[in-house]
């Protein structure tokens, strides 16, 4: 197993794990980008292999062409020497080299077509990767912004709950204060009306008489003091 293939399998495994676990979208985007880069590297490696094969065919074609030229020269030389048999043998070898060159040329043309397709595919793949890289960064920025907004909203929500609790405490305290004030007013009213018992077991009439007696004693004492001061 090649090192590149092993790396591709590792990336694939990581990608599947993150997709299945529904983890951070940033990781998913990064691994998708890595997967595309791995695909681009594989395409370039294959392109390099095909171009290498094309170069080998070109070398073989050049050798076949040289062989054709050499056999043609040998045939001419043999005829000049009246050696038709040698000329025929040289032409036979030339014909074999010509067939070989035709086969090599056909293979080269096929390889050249593959090279062109791979080059075009590699360019398109690179463009897709560039576009995805830009989109990836935009999506990551949007996700980061949304994530920050969620945290802000959660913080504000927690603050609202806390403030709501404070408001409820204030409301309860206010209600209790109003109840206490109303109770105090009620007690004052009852005390003034004499409804509340102050511990005196005398009747209302006896209490009124006591007030009159106390008031008379005070008046008598006041008159006495006035008389003494006039002397």
Automatic annotation (TrEMBL):
<feature type="compositionally biased region" description="Basic and acidic residues">
    <location>
        <begin position="221"/>
        <end position="231"/>
    </location>
</feature>
<feature type="compositionally biased region" description="Basic and acidic residues">
    <location>
        <begin position="169"/>
        <end position="178"/>
    </location>
</feature>
<dbReference type="Pfam" id="PF04012">
    <property type="entry name" value="PspA_IM30"/>
</dbReference>
<dbReference type="InterPro" id="IPR007157">
    <property type="entry name" value="PspA_VIPP1"/>
</dbReference>
<protein>
    <submittedName>
        <fullName>PspA/IM30 family protein</fullName>
    </submittedName>
</protein>
<feature type="region of interest" description="Disordered">
    <location>
        <begin position="164"/>
        <end position="231"/>
    </location>
</feature>
<comment type="similarity">
    <text>Belongs to the PspA/Vipp/IM30 family.</text>
</comment>
<feature type="compositionally biased region" description="Basic and acidic residues">
    <location>
        <begin position="201"/>
        <end position="213"/>
    </location>
</feature>
């Amino acid at each position: 197993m090649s090192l590149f293939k092993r790396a591709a399998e590792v990336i694939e495994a990581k990608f599947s794990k993150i997709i299945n676990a529904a983890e951070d979208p940033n990781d998913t985007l990064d691994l998708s980008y890595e997967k595309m880069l791995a695909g681009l590297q594989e395409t370039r490696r294959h392109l390099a292999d095909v171009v290498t094969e094309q170069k080998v065919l070109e070398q073989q074609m050049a050798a076949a062409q040289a062989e054709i030229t050499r056999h043609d020269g040998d045939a001419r030389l043999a005829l000049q020497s009246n050696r038709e048999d040698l000329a025929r043998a040289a032409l036979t070898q030339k014909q074999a080299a010509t067939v070989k060159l035709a086969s090599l040329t056909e293979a080269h043309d096929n390889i050249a077509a593959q090279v062109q397709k791979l080059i075009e595919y590699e360019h398109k793949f690179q463009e897709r990767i560039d576009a995805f890289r830009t989109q990836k960064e935009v999506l990551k920025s949007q996700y980061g912004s949304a994530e920050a907004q969620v945290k802000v909203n959660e913080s504000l929500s927690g603050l609202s709950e806390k403030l709501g609790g404070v408001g409820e405490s204030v409301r309860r305290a206010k209600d209790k204060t109003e109840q206490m004030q109303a109770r105090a007013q009620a007690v004052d009213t009852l005390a003034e009306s004499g409804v509340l018992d102050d511990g005196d077991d005398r009747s209302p009439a006896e209490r009124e008489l006591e007030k009159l007696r106390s008031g008379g004693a005070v008046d008598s004492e006041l008159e006495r003091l006035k008389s003494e001061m006039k002397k």
